[in-house]
Fold:
Amino acid sequence: MTQADFIAQPTTRTTLDALRAVLQSGGVAQLDVAVAYITTSGAHELLKSMSTSLGGAWDALPKRWITSFDYCRTEPIALGSLMSLPNSSIRIYDAGFCLNHGGAPKVPFHPKAFLIRTAQRDYALAGSGNMSRSGLLRGVEAGLVISVNRLQPSEPSSVAAINAMHTWFTGAWDVSEPLNASLLSSYTQLFERRENLMSPAPTEDDVASTDTGRSGLSTKDLQKLRVCKHFWIDAWNITKNRGPNLPGNQLMMKRLSRVFFGFAATAVPENTHIGDVQISFNHGQGEVFSLTYSDNKMDKLVLPIPNVGGPAAYDNEHLLFERTKPGFFEMSIGSKATRNQWAKRSAAIGGLFRMTSGREWGVF
Structure:
């Protein structure tokens, strides 16, 4: 018997809602995904949801992903995170042509399909959203999920439709290039070109800036925050939030700096908890820290406690955050000379900024 589900995002049922329902049906044996592009925040949301839904079975599940380098929309860190998963294989459609033509495809790769096989049923999700935060959760998207009982097929047209999608996936998989460290390195070099970081190709995760003041961040600025791997900031004097005799650990940043840390550039009320990020200092294990929108109209990031996972103090230091995988950031402290090098790299792509207080920060 055919079963059906729907996606009516964001009001009723999101793409992630529909996927979770399939995964929680039990006995998941195979996951095949074909999407036009994958953003870091999209990978973070999907992998978090799937690992939560499947628990220990997630690592053992065979996973195949097909995506593209088209227009440099897929983010290298997202690809690296998928490569590192157990039982995970990635292929890139027409990878060589895109690399040789600056990211322009010969024929655009544009599917959004999830094929899931369980012990008894075959599921096919076909929607409109890519593997981005917006495509999975926030954007206006629509789609359908159908499934058939593979062991007792009773509706030939539904079985034929799902079988045709599997045949299409197999054909696309066979002609796509396996992603390995060398191919990812070549794409990363293309993605991190000065021209691309200066004017990134928009994705579904990019929305118009809500900063309307003269010193506000523009939509182009926010796109740079999304694609850049590094974020640095002059800390200056940190508020003594831990007491008058203890160094503080709450970093005040420009409003909407949250975009670098993987969150949407949407307006929220003051004192809103935006989300959590994992931060490691000097290659430590890393812990989860809170990011909020403060009542001073700045994004406030809690940092590792001084002398307990963090440096002795943050006052007047130059802090660098490097995105190493979705939702995870390596923090380090730079000298004045190193900080000036960061500023030069930021200025080269139009990513050097100054707050009204005079504090500088940037991305590269």
Notes: The radius of gyration is 22 Å. DSSP finds eleven helices and 19 strands in the chain. The first helix runs from residue 15 to 23.
